[in-house]
UniProtKB/TrEMBL annotation:
Its cofactor is Mg(2+). Substrate binds at R574, R629, E759, G780, T781, N782, D783. The lineage of its organism: Bacteria, Bacillati, Actinomycetota, Actinomycetes, Micromonosporales. Mg(2+) binds at E759, D783. It comes from Micromonospora siamensis. The keyword Transferase applies. It holds the Pfam family PEP-utilizers_C. This is Pyruvate, phosphate dikinase. The active site is at H451, C846. Keywords: ATP-binding, Kinase, Magnesium, Metal-binding, Nucleotide-binding, Pyruvate, Transferase. Belongs to the PEP-utilizing enzyme family.
């Protein structure tokens, strides 16, 4: 088996085998860009190592051969005492996992080659000893699990002894002393001397990278990001280039466009006289990349040229890592860069303008989750809120919450239902748990490319980084800013777009994208790149999609808003709430009615109220279909809770009051008590048991439709019977309903359809029969999931879903995203058999899944006519329905 690839042998499409970093290093090499030579050990080798606990046969020999050819090419031997070749050993999985795994620089240095390195660098002892102490530090920490703080403390001690705070003030002697201190730390923790043999260093480092795949934080990150656990990581061995050779050297990171807003320009951080990790770790303050133009114009121009070339080649935003060694530019990494939701839309639009991609591809490049993020509210700052600090808007959103300083505390408070803001000097991979639990992240150090920024953007979590006015005191559980002290539990608000930090809770307002959907921002006439891009891509999605998008709405106001958001009808109008509030009294009378007359009287009182409700909704949806579901929940939901009622009755009796009415109510509640109400007397069952209830609703709907038609409007009601499991249920309801409709509608021209919800598994399995009696189906996927799995939706999420997710029984809650294999199969069967029995049968879906991106794609595949979702998800469903086509 071939386990090792030279950079010249790979390309960007081999990410499975070479990992993202290796594949892109190969791609850049083949583009002729200045990449230091090296080779990649495949993910297959890693998987074999993890499975058996040892390197697969043949790997050692292949590494040997590639190392020799690297040495030949460089004219130097690994760790040679006179003129050493040094390498970095870098992890790189298929999906980028920023800072999750390990990298070791300067491999090949030892007590002898450190002298040779100094000679190579023209007698630069300082540089050589700095490189050596970095090797011991990184190797100790990542390969041998020496606690990193020990090295940090020794470094602090050395600086203190020198009376400085800056690493750069340490001279060669100081650093040589530090190497001795580091070696002692190493020996103390590992029980052995720091390995002097270069090849042993290399082999141990490679093995450590393999093993880092299963580090706890890597596992947690993969779970959060839904990255499969069995991919393994590749290992890249790369000839070292040095950014720490002096002021004419340095290292940096850059994006080809702003990953926050998508704006074109030069975005990056540069740090002179530094090595790799220094930039990302936020240890020293970086300068904006533009300043490189003054420092080293030649490298700067070359870098801009390369960035343009990469964008053209990848046809997308790229991020890069580079190093300048004495005026010579080297590319160390590139990849298609992560970006915020706003940047994703803006960049997709720009790339279309630049002719690099077409609109179909632009639609591919964005998704519903991003659009949903852009619909988050913003801070409303017209009051007297003054920021107390301004950092970098690293990941957008508006978050308020209680301040916490540790990951553990964040997790604790979040579990109690609190919103928390995790405040740190800088985050590191150990903070991942806290970052997941927090509503927002605030750091006092680090730029747009710091750990906090990159991880938060990936999670879609609000983050302000590098707010350097903040003095963060983690052990003291407080920070100070502008003379004020903020402690754990105090509330702050952070704006991840502007980078501003406020004390207290700032009120929020709708985002620009929501204002656009609401119709109050005209994309043709405002200068807002985001709104224009959203408009353009949404228009394209609408032109492409086959699925119609309706909304779930129970009131005229919801219906109106959903229409502005692009809803093409109502897919689910629940009538339950129409029985609450003032009308509860009427419902109580209906339930308690002892005679037909009493019952009819309360139904007659409800009729005009219901009719008004429907008139309002039909008017708002003028001409668009409105699916009205007949009353569904068990009747006792409309009555007071049993215990409370029993207490009231007892108390009143004690006082000698007249309790006849309350007692009757209590008796009714007792009579109607059910052990499993969700499987009890509800839906069509209720309609068949309480005479006149469905009839009243049907009449109200038909009368409302006729009234709207009579006043110049147009109404298209679709009456939906819930919880049907057998065609006979539907037939019974339908026979009665048709009589009423015929009588009310007369020759008004109004048409009323009658169909059913498919939400009981038996209905799905007998859909062919049911279709004979139904003019449409609407899949009630909430109940279908609940009954298909036998899960009580109200009980399971907190009780054991966490365990199921942990065990991977499902990757996501089946209430959130449709379970394609099981519940989805019921949908598929019902759609096929329903359409076979009644060609052209109208099929839709209502329920949470209608607004879930992945589920929308499934419903498209199955051939439904529409999805219906809550008003705020309507744009998301429109976008995803378009994406399902291209
Ligand atoms: P990560 O995946 O965390 O970004 P990398 O493997 O990219 O880790 O390496 C960490 C840092 O070390 C980066 O800043 C990178 O540019 C730098 N680095 C890696 N290899 C070399 C090398 N051969 N020469 C100089 N710097 C390097
Ligand atoms: Mg790293
Ligand atoms: Mg990197």
């Amino acid at each position: 088996d071939k386990y090792v690839y030279d950079f010249s042998e790979g390309n960007k499409d081999l990410k499975d085998l070479l990992g993202g970093k290796g594949a892109n290093l190969a791609e850049m090499t083949n583009l002729g860009l200045p990449v230091p030579p090296g080779f990649t050990i495949t993910t297959e080798a890693c998987k074999a190592y993890l499975a058996t606990g040892r390197e697969p046969d043949g790997l050692a020999g292949q590494i040997e051969a590639h190392l020799e050819s690297l040495e030949r090419g460089m004219g130097r031997r690994l760790g040679d005492p006179q003129d050493p070749l040094l390498v970095s050993v870098r992890s790189g999985a298929k999906f980028s996992m920023p800072g999750m795994m390990e990298t070791v620089l300067n491999v090949g240095l030892n007590d002898r080659s450190v002298v040779g390195l100094s000679k190579q660098a023209g007698g630069n002892d300082r540089f050589a000893w700095d490189s050596y102490r970095r090797l011991i530090q990184m190797f100790g920490k990542t390969v041998c699990e020496v606690p990193g703080e020990e090295f940090e403390h020794a470094l602090e001690d050395a600086k203190r002894a020198k009376g400085t705070k800056n690493d750069l003030d340490l001279d060669a002697d100081d650093l040589r002393g530090l190497v001795d201190a580091y070696k002692k730390i190493f020996a103390k923790h590992t029980g052995r001397e720091f390995p002097q043999e270069p090849r042993e260093q290399l082999d141990l480092a490679i093995r450590a990278v393999f093993e880092s795949w299963n580090a706890e934080r890597a596992i947690l990150y993969r779970r959060q990001e839904r990255i499969p656990a069995d991919l393994g990581t590749a290992v890249n061995v790369v000839a070292m280039v040095f950014g720490n050779l002096g002021p004419d050297s340095g290292t940096g990171v850059a994006f080809t466009r702003d990953p926050g807003s998508g704006a074109q320009g030069i975005y990056g951080d540069y740090l002179a006289n530094a090595q790799g990790e220094d930039v990302v770790a936020g240890i020293r303050n970086t300068v904006p990349l533009q300043e490189l133009e003054q420092l080293d114009k030649k490298s700067y121009d070359e870098l801009l040229g390369i960035m343009a070339r990469l964008e053209e080649h990848y046809k997308d935003l790229c991020d890069i890592e580079f190093t300048i060694e004495r005026g010579k530019l080297w590319m160390l990494q590139t990849r298609v860069g992560k970006r915020t939701a706003a940047a994703a839309f803006v960049i997709a639009g720009q790339l279309v303008d630049e002719g690099l991609i077409d609109l179909d591809e632009a639609l591919h490049r964005v998704n519903g989750a991003q659009l949903a993020q852009l619909m988050f509210p913003r801070f409303q700052l017209d009051h007297d809120f003054q920021p107390v600090a301004k950092g970098i808007g690293a990941s957008p959103g508006a978050a308020s919450g209680k301040v916490v300083f540790t990951s553990a505390r964040a997790v604790e408070l979040a579990a109690e239902g609190e919103s928390v803001i995790l405040v740190r000097r800088e985050t590191n991979p150990d903070d991942l748990n806290g970052m997941i639990a927090a509503k927002g992240i605030l750091t006092s150090r680090g730029g747009k490319t710091s750990h906090a920024a990159v991880v938060a953007r990936g999670m879609g979590k609000t983050c302000v980084s590098g707010a350097d006015e903040l003095e963060v005191d983690v052990p003291g559980k407080k920070f100070t800013v502008g003379g004020q002290t903020v402690g754990e539990g105090d509330v702050v608000s952070i704006d991840g777009t502007t980078g501003k930090v406020y004390l207290g809770e700032v009120p929020v307002m709708p985002s620009e994208v929501v204002q656009y959907f609401e119709g109050s921002l005209d994309p043709e006439h405002i200068d807002n790149a985001l709104v224009r891009a959203v408009h353009r891509i949404m228009t394209h999605a609408d032109g492409k999609r086959r699925l119609a998008v309706r909304t779930n709405a129970d009131t005229g106001a919801d219906a109106a808003r959903a229409r502005r958001f692009g809803a093409e009808g109502i897919g689910l109008c629940r009538t339950e709430h129409m029985f609450l509030g003032d009308r509860r009294e009427l419902v109580e009378r209906l339930i308690l009615a002892r005679t037909d007359d009493e019952r009819e009287a309360s139904l007659a009182a409800l009729l005009p109220l219901q009719r008004e409700d429907f008139i309002e909704i039909f008017r708002e949806m003028d001409g668009l279909p409105v699916t009205v579901r007949l009353i569904d929940p068990p009747l006792h939901e409309f009555l007071p809770p049993l215990e409370q009622l029993a207490v009231n009755v007892a108390v009143a009796q004690e006082r000698g009051e007249d309790v006849a009415k309350e007692e009757a109510l209590l008796a009714a509640v007792r009579r109607m008590h059910e052990e499993n109400p969700m499987l009890g007397l509800r839906g069509v069952r209720l309609g068949l048991v309480i005479p006149g209830l469905f009839a009243m609703q049907v009449r109200a709907i038909a009368e409302a439709a006729v009234a709207v038609a009579g006043s110049g409007g147009s109404a298209c009601p679709e009456i939906m019977v819930p919880l049907v499991g057998a065609v006979q249920e539907l037939e019974t309801v339908r026979a009665e309903a048709e009589k009423i409709i015929a009588e009310v509608v007369g020759d008004s021209g109004v048409e009323v359809l009658i169909g059913t919800m498919i939400e009981v598994p038996r209905a799905a399995l007998t859909a062919g029969q049911i279709a004979e009696a139904a003019q449409f189906f609407s899949f009630g996927t909430n109940d279908l999931t609940q009954m298909g799995w036998g899960f009580s939706r109200d009980d399971v999420e907190g009780a054991f879903f966490w365990r199921y997710l942990e065990l991977g029984i499902f990757g996501i809650s089946p209430f959130e995203s449709i379970d394609r294999d099981g519940v989805g199969r019921l949908v598929r069967i019902a759609a096929e058999e329903g359409r076979a029995a009644r060609p052209g049968l109208k099929l839709g879906v209502c329920g949470e899944h209608g607004g879930d991106p992945d589920s929308v794609h499934f419903f498209h595949e199955v051939g439904l006519d529409y999805v219906s979702c809550s008003p705020f998800r309507v744009p998301v469903a429109r976008l995803e329905a378009g994406r399902a086509v291209v």
